[in-house]
## 1
Amino acid sequence: MDKKIKIGIYGYGNLGKGIEIGIKNNKDMELVGIFTHRNPTDITPIYEESKIYSSNNIEDFKDKIDIMILCVGSALDLPIEGPKVAKLFTTIDSFDTHAKIYNYYQSMNTSAKENNNLSLIACGWDPGLFSLNRCLFESILPLGENYVFYGRGLSQGHSNAVRKIPGVKNAVQYTVPYDEAINQVKSGKNPHFSSVKETMWRECFVVLEENADKEKIEKEIKQMPDYFAPYNTVVHFISEDEFQKNHTSMPHGGFVLRSGKTSKNTNQLAEFSLKLDSNPEFTASVLLAYARAIYKMKNLGTTGAISVLDVPISLLSSKTKEELLNKII
Amino acid sequence: MDKKIKIGIYGYGNLGKGIEIGIKNNKDMELVGIFTHRNPTDITPIYEESKIYSSNNIEDFKDKIDIMILCVGSALDLPIEGPKVAKLFTTIDSFDTHAKIYNYYQSMNTSAKENNNLSLIACGWDPGLFSLNRCLFESILPLGENYVFYGRGLSQGHSNAVRKIPGVKNAVQYTVPYDEAINQVKSGKNPHFSSVKETMWRECFVVLEENADKEKIEKEIKQMPDYFAPYNTVVHFISEDEFQKNHTSMPHGGFVLRSGKTSKNTNQLAEFSLKLDSNPEFTASVLLAYARAIYKMKNLGTTGAISVLDVPISLLSSKTKEELLNKII
């Protein structure tokens, strides 16, 4: 039997936990350890056998880990820590600040290349699988338009913004696409949406502290600049019981649609969509499949930084070439 | 400006015409010629400027064509002609006999490799984009099930079978998936369908010759072994006018769905779907995007036979790496 791919988890939030769970679904992988910035003894992993180490000690694992999966925050942590870890390990991350991806690519590429490592950046579902389909769709249907819809899904950033309002005990925010907007696109009309608020609205479920002022809080949410003011926002007040029962998972999803013409009256519609019970567990599953791919690419000599667009899909599979041609094609 | 990718069309049926149309949508490509088994003077191309040559003369174009797109029949012609053309050109085809793909791969691989050419086999949407998603989905969600639904779409083979019945002047057959079956899959229930007839039915639109026996023909269609007998089949008799108005385009489409679990109670659903006004024009568009990719791969030194699973999606695009990272990821 082939030896297993040795995985390290760097950072232990929702995504890191998703990786810890996901490794169990992939028989060709094993978890070497979880590396945390916190005190390792303060961490309780999901599985008793998972080993917790301090992130200060990653250098000791240089030859014991094949792929280090970076699960620290994308906004503040990855730009600084990514290039450092890429000096020591072949890495994969879910960097998701679209506007800064090219800069991040450059610094990861330098670190990885100089140290003979490979780094797959901006993996997950968006950026990630959605990027793959945006590229595929516009290459196949050059005369057309890409549309992306998010949701129904929990937005962590917007949920946090509501939770910070005094008087709010607990809150979640779901991003919800308008069916009418989706149907317009699917009809092949290639509608123009002047802003994202024409394609989606925001739904909040809020648990109040005792004696909190309902009307004031609803107003405060709806008027919050950037986060809610530009959007159609609906606020529901619910009990803590209902919150715990119905709003503690992290569902998400969305669509990439392309509507394009191949000749004057011939419309063609391509769609990629996800409906996820757990956003972090799915993102983790995508990262693990791509970890398998970059493990193979690294062994074939690829170094530097790459994106999902650079990875042949066959490498994600644990099937042989013959199996793929016989069973998958 | 970069020089254009020089395309040859080998075989001039519906797919060949789709390629002729599709090249106009890709500014980095040009048509060198259409190669036919028939007498070139008997062929009228869609665009006056398209040049028609005899397929006997392809050898004269060895250094004038970058990619030869094989548009001859998949069942009988490709297994014989594919390996011959692959000795002379870098080729792409839509070989679609799933059960024989591995054999076909081997003969194309030998021909292409020995002659320093590259051959992309079994491209299109199924096999092709659907294969890509079957592989992607099962790699990401190893604990799950793939489902494929076809339609609503015109089946050429079944339409021909109906047209051969004496008394039938004209006919089309559409394959239609059952909504209930699709909804069961989308609900995450992972249903088991014991045969394809549980997932789709067949709808025929038939124009009769004068004095033909309606009831006899309906019976003959519904009892036709393999083609219709195993399925729920509905037959409509229509006028030639209605046929010409509503049933002469070649729509098709379908879905690849994967429903899988990442942990005990967490279901994740991924879907890729196509809704096509013209099956041959869309298939041609897929082949052209992949023609761009294998043109680049050939220039980088790849030879032999490959499938869509072996092609990084970035190569399908005419965008630069920086543009892809900035605008697509």
## 2
Amino acid sequence: MDIDFQKLLDGVLNKDVRLTSRAITLVENENPESVSMLKKLFKHTGNAKIIGITGPPGSGKSTLTDKLAKAARHQGKTVGIVAVDPTSPFTGGAILGDRVRMQEISTDPGVFIRSMGTRGQLGGLAKATMSAVRVLDAYGCDYIFIETVGVGQSEVDIIKLADLVCIVLIPGMGDDIQSIKAGIMEIGDIFTINKCDREGVERLYTELNMMLDLRDSSEVRPPVLKTIAQTGEGVSEMLEEADKLFYNMKESGKLQKRRKRNLKIEVENILTSIFVKKVNKVAAETGLMDDYADKMSKKESDPFTVAEDILNKL
Amino acid sequence: MDIDFQKLLDGVLNKDVRLTSRAITLVENENPESVSMLKKLFKHTGNAKIIGITGPPGSGKSTLTDKLAKAARHQGKTVGIVAVDPTSPFTGGAILGDRVRMQEISTDPGVFIRSMGTRGQLGGLAKATMSAVRVLDAYGCDYIFIETVGVGQSEVDIIKLADLVCIVLIPGMGDDIQSIKAGIMEIGDIFTINKCDREGVERLYTELNMMLDLRDSSEVRPPVLKTIAQTGEGVSEMLEEADKLFYNMKESGKLQKRRKRNLKIEVENILTSIFVKKVNKVAAETGLMDDYADKMSKKESDPFTVAEDILNKL
């Protein structure tokens, strides 16, 4: 199959929905030629506000993202949503439910929704996610939401690639604030208490604020918001808050700093991905790995020695 | 701090509990010198039965692992448990509860329990897990259980490194069988329906068997077992079944084949880990990454071009 990447690139830049969809599919599938397209795309990116949305299962992230997208659409903005599947082999009802719910807005041509599934490869999911984000950015999306359930190391790594991270919590999650590991609190720029019609909101609100007060005072104190995504309550206020934060981050230089950090991580993901592919290719072509596996099986070698051997050969 | 790795190695081989604990801690922390110990250890490994236990949150994996360990202890066997923390930033009650429950058996000197937490690095968690398993194997553990909640790409990758994978399910998980993605069914060697005192057991049992009947008939058909881990019902039968399977896998050559495959994956994890460290080191020392980030910021370059540049430099 011959793919005309120049045509796809032009399609993206000219806001052709069909060609943009196609372009995203190709970068998702890591089509080798799509790299040249991504390289050319890059200089047309940087205008979208990339917002990461994460939270525990059942916190209503998808509904919230859906409603944020609608709020942005009301302002005439275009929206991209990249939903990162938790790649759980056991999907509970919630995850399947989310996907159905998302389809509610998927008929709106001003909203692009992509669901990223499993990538068999280290760093692959993060790489594919960011590549999809770049295409949506070049296409001209004003907002791009990266949504992922906060489970698994790789998923957390992905959400950090956004410009701004929103942590969604709900009242009554067992030990509430104690149940959130330290690491995640530090990456949150906005905290949203969703399902605010439930009991325990005030307690969570107070605890969250107390915890955030203890953070480094030289940093901007993240706001704690309240929403009921189901009814849309507090959603447009949340979008406003995000806009305000973007403005401040831009003014203070923090946005540029964070984007630089994220670009470095993106390069690392790409490097790892290239490296792993190279290793696999060399190993497959030469039957090298089979020989090594035999040797290790017989205890004539061990995984660390083999790894060093291969490194020397590359 | 000077660490005598020869002494640690001798300690492990002489079944010194304190020194073995120490050795595991060092390999977990990826102490660079621990590599030489792991290399020397390797030829003393291969005797343990490495069993992976996974399942959705709330399926009672930890209790089941705990009870399997006890059953093995009753036969005078020694047991290692490597519990891989799902590294979720949002720990629900269940995960914290598991850990407390595990402490019940942690006072038994014939059982080693290690909990593996977050590793900030690609492939790092899998590498650290397998290194801990190797130490426990060399120490002389008869059974080593790798237990992980089935969420997140990395966690699934880890469970595949076991000799034998047991998938734990419970009745009443919403759509039951439909909620399990195809990929996980294929890696299961044993299916256990836990919490069999609940409603819906027979339906799940029938559905599972029907699904497994559709699998490739040249493969051994995995057994479907029933347990109530809480009371211990069916647990010793499960251990027996696992032993039977090990015996058959050994006889048919399947065990050796799978171990070879797993050794290859282990090498890949080590390679990636070395590579990522190398990249980070070069980047940090030369300030290379900062220059690249500046260039990318100004759209004078892009992540793919930078990655290729760095690869050429390495």
## 3
Amino acid sequence: MRFTIKKDPFLKTLTIAGRAAPVKSAVPALSNIKFDLNEKGLELTGCNGEMTIDSVVPYMIGEEEIIRSASMGKILVSAHYITEAIRRMEGTEIHFEVVDSSLAKIDDGRTSIKLVCANAEEYPDIDLEESGQTFEMSTPDLLDLVEQSAFAASSKETKPVLSAVNLEACGDGTLVATATDAARMARKSVSINADVRFKCNVPARILGDIAHLIEGTGSVRVSVDDKKALFRAGMTVVSTRLIPGDYPVTKSIIPTNFNYFLEANSQELINAMGRLSIFITEKDGAVKLSMNESEVEVYAKNEASGSANEKIQTFSFVGESLSVSFNPAYIVDAIKALRSEDVTLCFVNEMKPFVIKNPKDPSAVELITPMRTY
Amino acid sequence: MRFTIKKDPFLKTLTIAGRAAPVKSAVPALSNIKFDLNEKGLELTGCNGEMTIDSVVPYMIGEEEIIRSASMGKILVSAHYITEAIRRMEGTEIHFEVVDSSLAKIDDGRTSIKLVCANAEEYPDIDLEESGQTFEMSTPDLLDLVEQSAFAASSKETKPVLSAVNLEACGDGTLVATATDAARMARKSVSINADVRFKCNVPARILGDIAHLIEGTGSVRVSVDDKKALFRAGMTVVSTRLIPGDYPVTKSIIPTNFNYFLEANSQELINAMGRLSIFITEKDGAVKLSMNESEVEVYAKNEASGSANEKIQTFSFVGESLSVSFNPAYIVDAIKALRSEDVTLCFVNEMKPFVIKNPKDPSAVELITPMRTY
């Protein structure tokens, strides 16, 4: 196995595949990137047991020759060493050659590096075939879906299904993403122009990685079966395991009849929460929002250190007087996810979950459960 | 105690004094900043037991009124809470008022904050009086002195005196800084136009903080006695404890007769060390530098992962063939400290400490002990 390759696309693709390669693993082969020089180009694969990333450096990009002097073959190369070596090399072209099955020589004309390698047979078999429901959607729509839902998933593993984003297509041409950590919920729907039907639970962390990896492409081909979801965009395909188990039924928990409505400026609310959160500790404390038609005030207190309050300047409120207490980080996450200048908060009463939405875009809904304060 | 103050200079000075206030301390009062509104202005003091920072917000800066409606007094305010609160407040002017001895009210017209405070009597007495040897020097000279020596001090506390920078003035108008962690040494001297005589060991970490704090001022007044060193620049004075004990005698360990001289480009050496250091672990490994008049090569190897070598392109070497092994991080630190385009490495033999210097500036000398390799 041997090839001469342009440094920049090589490093870029190494970095992509390397995102899945764990620094340490119970399966030593997984600390490597699998190099497979085949008819498509240089195919690089990284895998951590949960997620697999496979990305190809093609022989040509437009008119530019990227790989030359190629002799096909496969080998495993340490993800850490190869990425660090290529990153630091100064040449614009790099020659890679497997000397014997356990040693690769890498040379850019200035630096000569020898890396201990492993046999490609040691790498686990990875299924990257499309199966089950398959459809194509716009990449920006998928990014919206992830950014407006995944933050609300649980970061704890105590109830695994809550660490996932639930994706559901009901055959009506929409794809709905739902995430909840039991104290809050985020839901976003987008059109997909495909009559597929499926439900699956994708680990939220991995879905975030996927969004990052496919950013900048125009469209993404999604394929979902019982075990895995595949996302193919450009020269890269990412596979993730699914989390088994039924996702909580969340549709019925979004209230539909509200008694109080607050419309306010997003940035003003975020800044106010930032100031008040000085007095909130991870274990303790809530911000209290007190509203009536003439005044809206937020307040936070910490017995040991002090308190803060301020009046919201720009608002419109409809309803009787109401006070609601909540975790300010939840409000900030929800408002940021809505990405609108103003937000509407809709309340049933001081104890029922309340809804935050963008008044101009009903496709995303954020739900927050108030906290009891005594 | 009460005052109205412009936010920006208040926050800047809070941040300066707060650098010395520990997040947690066995002495609870030290987690506070001491506020003392006196005839100089608002004097803010932070102290962690080793270092004290005292900085004043004056009533006027030029024609601009900074503090108004002042009623003098003293109080202790949590460094964390007051700094975070002021940082996040949006008003340009802030009103601060002690309501009773345990509560301060802070208001910028938008946000109203109450902070639990402590009595100023609880703060330890701090001696910021000049005593012993006192002189004035240029701030850029002091920064050079610190940057070109302090990095070589030990980061371990096993031999406390090695975690210090030794400052010595011999009455000849020069101030010499020496730091060594036993495997390397850095020495820098500057002129001070003062015939003071003293020796002291200043903790290297604190000396770095001091350099950062006085950056941007023109001159600094230094005062050294048996217990402490004081650095006064602008509206800020920093006091540091000294480390007792005799500093190792280092003058005699710098060789004066050399047999080999390598002159090379600083950036090329740094880049080459960066590439080779991929194969160096914290516990193991050295870069081997092999030199003769026609070729200079660097090489590093790690049994488990691989090896790298490269030829240095720009060099001039005088002497017979020589190979020397060393920790590449030491070479990089030394070259960076010299801040010159080219550096000269002077060797006695492969085992004796070697010297790195800027060929155009003899005021800084860096010494590195080679490593044995088998």
